[in-house]
Design goal:
Strand content: 15-25%
CATH superfamily: HUPs
CATH architecture: 3-Layer(aba) Sandwich
Number of domains: 1
Number of helices: 8
Radius of gyration: 20 Å
CATH class: Alpha Beta
Strand order of the largest sheet: 3-2-1-4-6-5-8-7
Shape: flat
Number of strands: 8
Largest sheet: 8 strands, mixed
Amino acid sequence: MNKTAPKRAYRICSNCIMDTTDSGITFDARGWCDYCTNFYNNILPNWHPDEQSEREILAIADTIKQACKDRDHDCIIGISGGVDSSYVTYIAKEKLGLRPLLFHVDAGWNSQQSVNNIEKLVDGLGVDLHTEVVDWAEMKDLQLSFFKAQVPHLDTPQDHAFFAALYNFAAKHGFKYLITGANYSTECVREPLEWHYHASDLRQLNDIHRRFGTRPLKTYRRAIELASANGSAIKTINFAAGTYSEPVDDFSASIPEGVTVQNWGTGSVAFSACDPSLTEVTKGRTIVSMVRPIR
């Protein structure tokens, strides 16, 4: 006879509004949830929107400029036309003195405002732009597959295409440094997996399309292509102004002292690996996500 687990008593964090609508939430002796303790223990101590962060970013910029002084572009920036990527483009060009190539993926959902913003950035900053357009019929089929699968993370078809295309282009054209914009203070607290799963899980994406898709994805960019395009690993480091990436050959030697590794997996995942069972796979093609800037 199957027994149903007793329903969990309702509880809310004593420090924020997170509650037991997240079935996996935990609380400490103070009544603080694990989201709050993660923020105060791991994020806040390494978040420096001040002179310290500026010094760290300037040092990284100097490394990029020196390493790529003979290239037309010393880095590549993923641009959506939103506030994060637009601002990091301005910082990279005007404050850090970098020579970025802007990389945009049109997945079929561009707003006119985002298009206008990208045009203003290109014209105003005098930077170059490369745009990759996703086949709309394939995107539509994959998007409908996710609706039919009844998963909560319906943005996955676009999010996966954005990063897969960006990483594959960077690997193919020999870009060593990749910068993307993000809000470190609000987007790194971590949401429950049952509310929003990792868009980087290629295995799940393929399975959903296999079950519900009606046409092959012949041109849709997937992150697994990265492994065949470039045998090196990509190290991704989050800092206040965005994400800094560079290829590395030795995973273990690439982690600075004191840096906490959040998650990692094989090159089949272009950002934030999500399957801990993959940790024993060849480390030469590893994606690393860290929580503090490299020193």
